[in-house]
């Protein structure tokens, strides 16, 4: 299969950031010929000794072989290499799948000169096809020799892990820990089978900060809750969702042991912000997306209840097609609130599209202007806001519209 | 809005049954000009004195005003008239909505010569617009005068309640109770915002059998579980879902008090069968449907678990688009099993498309023929079967594929 020449999402950023080097990280990409032709499909990331790893993974009951591998490797927690391939998810591949990750780890460990359980592996692409891991032979050793830390290497890394993505997803932040400047770079890929929990299929974050394993894991898990766990494209949860954080410790700050240490406040804020940016980029590149949608729910009985209602709205095919049709169809928002099964009182509901209140007290807003609402719906970014009028619980999630493009991409993915 | 001239679903029955008269039931339709022009939009059903009513309704937390009305009226349980309109759901219409059902009941009660709480009301169509119930004035009285019991009246009834449906949905059965022949007629409409529980937006079943209120309610609730609660089009639950059973008692059988009375065995079987036929017709007319899909799950830890997994598969946009693309993409079935959150062991899973086993023991079936699977996918009716290999729980649900037609219909519904 050659990757389909899809036009870039209209919601793509107009420019991509140049990512600065992160001390202790070097990257290289290659064409291993896993599935695609004429494009890179392998990313190798070399990590200096002392790098700590943290990870958050799909909650699918049928996770991919690489997810199983990473979960096991995290028991060690030391990291020297990350290998990511696109084109084949190595999911639901049984014994062959386990053999493929083991072989990948062996090849990478030999190339990087580390232990096999210091290698992390992620795969994305088609499910159920055996992964020909022997194709990494030679390729990864070559990557080790070529690995770079410049901006071009980061951009190439983000491109190599794309599947149906129409643009590479990169973000960078700076922070200080105890007076020492640290950097955080992140890359991610979508673009379908995107739902909490986890949302993105693959995202990798790298920092030169020195963090304990516990602090890294806690920061990542907390950050995921308000970012990747708040984005949905189609409500379908991947078998392969992987979010990892690698901290090389090369910035020179004194290692911080606990995530709630005040010394990490600035770092945590920067990390959270970067995770949100990456998560939003995934929604902006949702398959077939023409509109970026923010759903905000307030006045719920609890934050958790608000979150479930927001996801019910964001996952509703009828709401998403209405947005695609630029139709301020708030009746479908009512429907989605009602079907969430959460506490709601029809007669206290209020609904806004952008800043136009279209419904209040359980009925159409008497002063509602169809024209003003239509203006909102024509924009590339649409906010849907619901106030339940019951309590103080709130949540916000991001999604995109549901268009014929989604059907086109997914009705003809394998062939 | 004029109703869109959509071609009839390719999954429609080739012929529609002629429904026989049901003693005690007379029907008439009219054009009240609620929303559509050039087509009927009101159904009036006159019910002879002594008719008992039973109902099962949406579990939405934001039900429509007619659903609230019917739930209240069922406390009485005696029925003399049913009024159904299409074009406007009278949902999320606040005080105006309550006034509209009250006015409808008043007009119908005067026309039929009965009490207002003997009138049942259902509405389907757009949400959030006030229903101009005053347009029923004169119309319903005229219907009372014109009501018929012939086959044409039944077909017209099924047509008057359609919204985005492309064909009328009718079914009929016969049974005996204690040696007395009884008839059961049913009509239903879909065709989007279809998900358990309930599945169909509106379905009405009429019988001349004499049943106690308790027996009627129990039979209907049980029957709904294995029919309408097993069909999904888009996972979106309507605010208006209504399934009602009216039993006139005019067949002359001795009234049966309890649903589990052996005298009702044949009637129950016939009713269940009719409900399944109607539910399947709803899936066959799912918005944009080109394929009718049966999902069977076996080997689950319980029937309830199997049901949730089957719905996860049937509601997955990625599975549904794969079916639309005639792609035997069983990896997406694995994904949908995994995301259901129910007990599942990846390495025991087996998956079939039709009679072609494509996966076994957590990997591709070694003897799997892509060609044979493709043959199955090209048919208009596709069965997806999953064996979890864990226990004896099983379930089956019906759905349809997800096509560009769905997007087209729903991206431009209100305008």
Automatic annotation (TrEMBL), chains A, B:
Assembly mode: Heterotetramer of two alpha and two beta chains.
Please tell me whether the keyword Amino-acid biosynthesis is annotated for this protein: yes
What InterPro entries has UniProt attached to this entry?
Arg_biosynth_ArgJ, ArgJ-like_dom_sf, ArgJ_beta_C
Keywords of the record = Acyltransferase, Amino-acid biosynthesis, Arginine biosynthesis, Autocatalytic cleavage, Cytoplasm, Multifunctional enzyme, Transferase
> What is catalysed by this protein?
L-glutamate + acetyl-CoA = N-acetyl-L-glutamate + CoA + H(+); N(2)-acetyl-L-ornithine + L-glutamate = N-acetyl-L-glutamate + L-ornithine
Entry keyword Cytoplasm: yes
Site residues (Involved in the stabilization of negative charge on the oxyanion by the formation of the oxyanion hole), renumbered to this chain: 124-125
Q: What does the record give as its pathway?
A: Amino-acid biosynthesis; L-arginine biosynthesis; N(2)-acetyl-L-ornithine from L-glutamate: step 1/4; Amino-acid biosynthesis; L-arginine biosynthesis; L-ornithine and N-acetyl-L-glutamate from L-glutamate and N(2)-acetyl-L-ornithine (cyclic): step 1/1
Protein name from the UniProt record: Arginine biosynthesis bifunctional protein ArgJ
What organism does the record attribute this protein to? Methylobacterium persicinum
- Name the PANTHER family on file: ARGININE BIOSYNTHESIS BIFUNCTIONAL PROTEIN ARGJ (PTHR23100), ARGININE BIOSYNTHESIS BIFUNCTIONAL PROTEIN ARGJ, MITOCHONDRIAL (PTHR23100:SF0)
Functional description taken from the UniProt entry: Catalyzes two activities which are involved in the cyclic version of arginine biosynthesis: the synthesis of N-acetylglutamate from glutamate and acetyl-CoA as the acetyl donor, and of ornithine by transacetylation between N(2)-acetylornithine and glutamate.
Q: Which domain of life is it from?
A: Bacteria
Tell me the compartments it is located in. Cytoplasm
Q: Name one Pfam family in it.
A: ArgJ
Q: Where is this site: Cleavage?
A: 199-200
Q: Supply the EC number(s).
A: 2.3.1.35, 2.3.1.1
């Amino acid at each position: 299969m050659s990757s389909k020449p899809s036009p870039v999402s209209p919601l793509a950023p107009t420019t991509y950031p140049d990512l600065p080097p992160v001390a202790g990280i070097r990257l290289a990409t290659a064409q291993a010929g896993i599935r695609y032709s004429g494009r890179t499909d392998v990313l190798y990331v070399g990590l200096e000794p002392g790098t700590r790893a943290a990870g958050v993974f799909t909650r699918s009951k049928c996770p991919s072989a690489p997810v199983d591998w990473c979960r096991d490797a995290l028991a060690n927690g030391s990291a020297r290499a990350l290998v990511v391939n696109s084109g084949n998810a190595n999911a639901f591949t049984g014994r062959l799948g386990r053999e493929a990750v083991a072989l990948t780890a062996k090849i990478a460990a030999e190339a990087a000169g580390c232990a096999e359980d210091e290698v992390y592996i992620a795969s994305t692409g088609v499910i159920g096809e055996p992964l020909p891991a022997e194709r990494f032979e030679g390729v990864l050793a070559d990557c080790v020799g070529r690995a770079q830390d410049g901006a071009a290497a980061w951009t190439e890394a983000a491109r190599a892990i794309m599947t149906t993505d129409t643009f590479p997803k990169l973000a960078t932040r700076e922070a200080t820990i105890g007076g020492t400047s640290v950097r955080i770079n992140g890359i991610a890929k979508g673009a379908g089978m995107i739902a909490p929990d986890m949302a993105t299929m693959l995202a990798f974050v790298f920092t030169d900060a020195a963090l304990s394993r516990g602090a890294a894991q806690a920061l990542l898990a907390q950050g995921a809750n308000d970012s990747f766990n708040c984005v949905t494209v189609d409500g379908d949860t991947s078998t392969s969702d992987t979010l990892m954080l690698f901290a090389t410790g090369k910035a020179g700050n004194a290692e911080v042991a606990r995530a709630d240490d005040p010394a990490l406040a600035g770092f945590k804020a920067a990390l959270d912000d970067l995770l949100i940016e990456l998560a939003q980029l995934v929604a902006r590149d949702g398959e077939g997306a023409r509109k970026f949608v923010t759903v905000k729910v307030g006045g719920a009985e609890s934050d958790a209840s608000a979150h479930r209602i927001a996801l019910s709205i964001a996952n509703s095919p009828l709401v998403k097609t209405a947005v695609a049709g630029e139709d301020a169809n708030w009746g479908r928002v009512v429907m989605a609130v009602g079907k969430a099964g959460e506490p709601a009182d029809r007669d206290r509901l209020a609904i806004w599209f952008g800043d136009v209140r279209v419904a209040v007290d359980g009925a159409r807003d008497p002063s509602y202007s169809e024209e003003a609402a239509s203006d909102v719906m024509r924009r590339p970014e649409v906010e849907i806001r619901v106030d339940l009028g019951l309590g103080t619980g709130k949540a916000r999630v991001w999604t995109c519209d549901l268009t014929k493009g989604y059907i086109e991409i997914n009705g003809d993915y394998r062939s």
